[in-house]
Design a protein that fits this description.
Blueprint: H1 2-19, H2 24-48, H3 53-56, H4 71-84, H5 90-119, H6 124-138, H7 149-173, H8 177-192, H9 199-220
Helix pairs in contact: 1-2, 1-5, 2-5, 4-8, 4-9, 5-6, 5-8, 6-7, 7-9
């Protein structure tokens, strides 16, 4: 239920844009508003439940040396833009920037914050695996946005991998800020490259996947095996 909570308002945003027949830029701003509201709801849930916001991950990261200084993570959006190139207008980039910022906060609050904390009672590594599977599965809701099957399959696989890596980093560093900032930068990069299935885009995603897959293997050895004492209430 925690994971679903993170997608309800996002889905409403997509539906609202379609019902109102908004142009692409206006639709992006509308979706950003709904996603931003989702982030605020998630933050309110954190505030009302037992762990503090700092315990949920709103604190400075630690043990960055165990995560290779985040260099592989930083390389992913750089490689994507270098391979695919920018293919949208400045007006579109501004709208995508706001949407990416809202998505970064909303998805990290709900998935690497609330969901991961809830699942940690099963063990940290089990929580990482389960949380990434839920994160990938809920991205299949883009079916209702009219996405083609190949796009959905690729997005599901990539979202599972991204969710896995960001959950590993949350477990190692104790901070949501890494995921929030990276999510913003990556999503803005992906939107700015056109977010389609061109040959260049597929090559960029393949390169990003290879980097993240190798990084996930490295991080897995650094993830603490013990279940932390603090978990979400409920």
């Amino acid at each position: 239920m925690v994971g679903i909570g993170g997608t309800i308002l996002t889905a409403f945003g997509v539906g609202f844009s379609q019902v109102r027949h908004l142009d692409p830029v206006s639709a992006t701003y509308a979706q950003a508003a709904f996603v931003g509201l989702s982030a605020l709801v998630g933050l309110a849930v954190m505030w009302r439940t037992k762990p503090s916001l700092a315990e949920y991950g709103f604190r400075s990261p630690v043990h960055l040396d165990r995560a290779l200084g985040l260099l592989p993570l930083l390389a992913v959006p750089v490689v994507l833009v270098a391979v695919v190139g920018i293919s949208v207008t400045p007006v579109q980039i501004a709208a995508y920037g706001l949407l990416s910022l809202c998505v970064g906060f909303s998805e990290e609050i709900w998935f690497r914050g609330l969901l991961l904390a809830t699942l940690r009672r099963l063990g940290t590594r089990t929580a990482i695996i389960g949380g990434s599977a839920v994160f990938g599965t809920l991205h299949l809701t883009n079916f209702f946005a009219g996405r083609e099957p190949l796009y959905l399959v690729l997005q599901f696989a990539f979202a599972c991998l991204v969710g896995f890596v960001l959950a590993e980093l949350m477990a190692i560093t104790g901070s949501l800020w890494i995921g929030i900032v990276w999510h913003f930068v990556y999503d803005l990069s992906a939107f700015s490259t056109g977010d389609d299935l061109s040959a260049a885009a597929l090559a960029g995603v393949a390169a990003a996947t290879a980097i993240l897959a190798a990084y996930s293997v490295w991080l897995w050895r650094k993830v603490p095996a013990a279940t932390p004492a603090v978990t979400a209430a409920g």
